[in-house]
Each structure stands twice: as structure tokens, then as C-alpha cells.
Amino acid sequence: MKKIIYILLVVVAFITSCKKDQDPIFDDPDTRLAKALDADKSQITSATNGWKAMIYPKGGKGFSFYFLFGTDGKVKMLSDFNASTATTLQESTYRLKALQRPTLIFDTYNYIHLAADPDASVSGGASATGLASDFEFAFASVAGDSIKMEGTFNGNKMVMIKLGAEESKSILDGGLKTMNDANTAYLLVNKNPYLLFADGTKGAVLIDPVAKTLKLNYLDSKEVSQLQTVKYAYGINKITLSGYLTYGNVRFNELFYDPAQKIYYIMSGTTRINVQNSVTPIIPLRTLFMPVGKDYSQIEYNPNNVQVNLSSDFNAKYNAAKTGLAAVGNAGRTLDAVRVIINVDNTMSLRYYYHNTSNSNFQANMTYSYTRDASGAYSFVYLADDGNAAVVGGGLTALKDYFSKNSFKVDWVVNPNGGAPYGGFYTTADQASFFYGTLIK
User: Fold this and answer.
1) Which of 43, 164, 324, 385 has its CA 20 to 30 A from that of 288?
2) Alpha carbon distances (Å) from 312 to 316, 321, 350, 434
3) What's the rounded Cα separation, in Å, for the pair 108 and 94?
4) Domains in the chain, ordered, with CATH?
5) CA distance linking residue 392 with residue 332, whole number of Å
6) Phi-psi group of 359: left, alpha or beta (phi > 0 → left; psi -120 to 50 → alpha; rest → beta)
7) Chain centroid to CA 388: how far?
8) Is the Cβ–Cβ distance between 350 and 337 less than 8 Å?
9) Please, what is the Cα angle at 222 between 197 and 274, to 5 degrees?
């Protein structure tokens, strides 16, 4: 019996020793990691036309990059971070290291470090953290010509896509800067871009080149504002979004630029939808103004700040009030501005700003109650004057009666100088008669 047991032990030991020699599970872990890192390096250096990459840091904005990795541990880089980084190729070093996963480390300073720079004046982010971007990335997955990576410190995603010769040349020829410049020129001309969907709904397309965000804003069937926000980075003749924007069956994550027509468009399947432009914002002001919305609650008419004579009827009443104020007590007071303020207690303050002959500044306030009907029309009922209005109010009758004797609807007023649109209270009896001015939150 002892002999049989001994023979069995010898056989088991022999089989085990053979398995250690032949089973790759027992390969040296360092050897396996070295092979994996070699394979990753071969992969990133195999792109002879380089890679394009997009990062959307947690701290905001989006950035695109061009990488060309050399077998000598050096990488050449461009970025849409600014005009210089988009046109000046800069070389630095990189290395691959086995951390918890094979990791690509940009180990000397280059454009990819700018968004992570703790100096807020460099990164445009917060002091000490920058935009919370990354410059060490673990390999997550590979699919075709794309590599998905994940930042090891802040967890930002980066996608690297192998470039073809044509797109690579466009980037190297300054294409990222060209797209940035095209976007700047587009926004100078197109103040209120929007998409018109098949059901007639208009979706405002709000492009912020400073924050590098793109927003889609529209009203649903209940006139409730629906707002979606994504970050963006520049590409060649397009803006690449950090996620999808959707309306019904329309879904897109790229905004394409047509350099011939100088317009943007999206693709919904095989259908091209051009971005159009409006002279006033797409979202109606009534939905943004108190008491419904809280974007704005005040409108101020100041002849020094707004275009005069857009409404001859209102301007005539303003000038009559200016003349009347100067005549009160023969004191020679000068009307400087008038402001409508919608208060949270369902009152409206009609506030006059004026100065005397000694250039001392004063305010006078008239208080009204108001109602707002189902169509959004405001009606005002005069209630009381404050101390200053009790003294000078007799000279301001033209404006006082303008608000008590009319009903009004809030809407945008086109700024003929091409600047931000004004807010306006249009009389329901005559759309040519409206109080207007600068919108104030």
C-alpha cells in the first residue's frame, strides 16, 4: 500500500512540474506586462499619419489634439487650446508603464498639460486644479481604429482615432485654428442660430466659444423650457460634442460647418438640417421674464445706452415726461432713465432716475399692482408714490398714464445696432407702441 501511494505522489509531482513548464498561466507576470506594453507601443506608433483625440475635462470645456508617436519615446502634438497650440507643432516625451492597467504617460510638459495646469491663468480653470484634466491615461478598450482611454487621476475619458492622410494634413496645415476662426466669424453674423424641426419647433443653438459649450434650448408643448448642454472641441470643418443632443427622433453629436455657405448643419440619419438664424432670440421673452421665468425681471430705458426713437409713441411720452419733470417747481431737474421692475409681491415699480442742477442723483418710485392673463398680457393699476415721486410725480404724468391706461405683452425688440436685443412691453392695442430697453436680471 505504501508503495502505491509513493508511486502516485511521484506521478502527481511529475504532471505538476510539466504543467508549470507548459501552461502560460504560470508565465512570469513581468514578462506578460512587458509584452502587453510592447504591443501597446507598437499600436500607437503604427499610425503613420498620427491620431486625433478629444478630451472633455471635468472642470469644463473640450479640447482636441493631434498626436504623432515615435518609437524613440517622443510625441509631436497640436491642440485647439489656442491659436498657437493649433499651429505650432511641439515635441515632448511619453512612456508606457504598467500600473493597474497599461498606461500612457505624457511625462514632459506639452499642450495636453495646459488644461490640467494648476495656474488658473493658464488653464482657464480653478486655482490649484485647473480644469481637472488628465495627462496619464490607462488603455480601456480598442475597436477598429479607435482606442478608448481613461485618465488615471481625474477619470476623464479620451478617445484616440487613427488619422487618414487627408485629415492629418488638414490638421497639420492649421485646420483646428481655421475652424476656431470660422466659428468666431459665424457668431459675429449669426446672433440667434436655431434648428427648425419637422414638427415646426425651433430649437435655439447656443454656442459659447469661451466656455466651449453648446446648448440646445426649446419649448415643450407646455411652454416649459427644455435645455441640454454639452461641451465641444474643434475638428476639421466641424465641432465635436461631448455627448448627444436630441429632439424627438433627431439625435446628433457633431455640428458640421459648410465653408462654402458659411453655415452650420447637422445630420439626422441621411437628412441634412441647416442651422438658421433669427433676428431675435428663439425662446420667447415672456417665458424668461417674471413672474413665469427668473432670467429677467427689469427693463430700463436709458437714452445713453439704447437706440432712441424705436417707438415714436413711447419716445414722445418719455420726452413729455422729461419736459414735465424739468418744469416741476421750475427746478430744472433732468430725467435720465426709467425702469420697469416686476417684483415678487405681484407689484410693479416704475422707477425714474434723474438729477438736479447740482448734478445730485435721485430716484422716484411709483408702485402699481398687476395682473397677467392667460395670453401673458400685463395690466397695471397705479397704487402709490414714494416721497420723491410725491414731489415730482406731477411732471411725470405722461409715463405714469402710459402704464395705467394700456395692457402689455413682453417680447424681444430688435437692436438695430446689431448688439444684444432689448426687452420690450408692447401695448396690446398697438404693436408700434412699446416701452423698451436693456434687460436686467
Assistant:
1) 385
2) 6, 14, 20, 9
3) 7
4) 41-168 (2.40.128), 175-282 (2.40.128), 286-440 (no CATH)
5) 11
6) left
7) 44
8) no
9) 15
Strand partners, 203: 195
Q: Residue 305 is placed in which grid cell? A: 445706452
